[in-house]
Amino acid sequence: MTCTWSLIDVNLFSILCPHKYACYKENHTFHKYSKEDYIYFEKDNADKIYLIESGKVKIGYYTEDGREIVKSIHGKGDVFGEKAIIGEENRNEFAVALSDTSICCLSIDTILELMRDNQHFSLKIYKFIGLRFKKIERRLSILLFKDVKSRLIEFLKELSEEYGYNCKHTGEHIIKHPYTQKDMASLLGTSRPTLNGLFNELKDEGVLVYYRNEIILSKNQEMLAS
């Protein structure tokens, strides 16, 4: 199956003209991964970036004592492995599928050629990388210096920015997100029982109601304002 969507449908690549992508589409195919399959390991060559057609991918690394640190989780339409664009030769993290996942790989040579041909595209790439680094840096800082409840509140702010909207009829703020509770626990560096307990605590405080892929913040809730 040829990868005919990546440089058109993904927001990062939406600025490209279709005829530019036509020069490359025959050379790219989807790669299928089952749950828990590794896409790359630490120290692997960094010669590609990856675009997710379907499924979810976890990015992380292991500490010297063997603990897993989750840096990010990506879903449909997301890009990962982007540090190869700025000269990373070997991976300093792993990427593993969290579900059955379909991915299109693009070689760094292809991306660099596209960047040379399109200055606007090149600027968008570097802006994307800068924002991605800033987001990861902020998340790691939260993990190091805040308690679990504070981490959850910061994470809810992040989810609100990416997936939230205001319901005109009820005045509630609704967050429709792609994460399971296990995903959230991994990102927050805690356990599922602890996270579930915090959601119940926030519910009892009248802050929110948690559903599987939806979080409803109570009307006039100011928790995310700061």
From TrEMBL:
It holds the Pfam family cNMP_binding. Residues 146-221 form the HTH crp-type domain. Residues 12-115 form the Cyclic nucleotide-binding domain. One of its GO terms (cellular component) is cytosol. InterPro entries: cNMP-bd_dom, cNMP-bd_dom_sf, Env_Response_Regulators, HTH_CRP, RmlC-like_jellyroll, WH-like_DNA-bd_sf, WH_DNA-bd_sf. Keywords: DNA-binding, Transcription, Transcription regulation. One of its GO terms (molecular function) is DNA-binding transcription factor activity. PANTHER family: CRP FAMILY TRANSCRIPTIONAL REGULATORY PROTEIN, HTH-TYPE TRANSCRIPTIONAL REGULATOR ARCR. This is cAMP-binding protein. The lineage of its organism: Bacteria, Pseudomonadati, Bacteroidota, Flavobacteriia, Flavobacteriales.
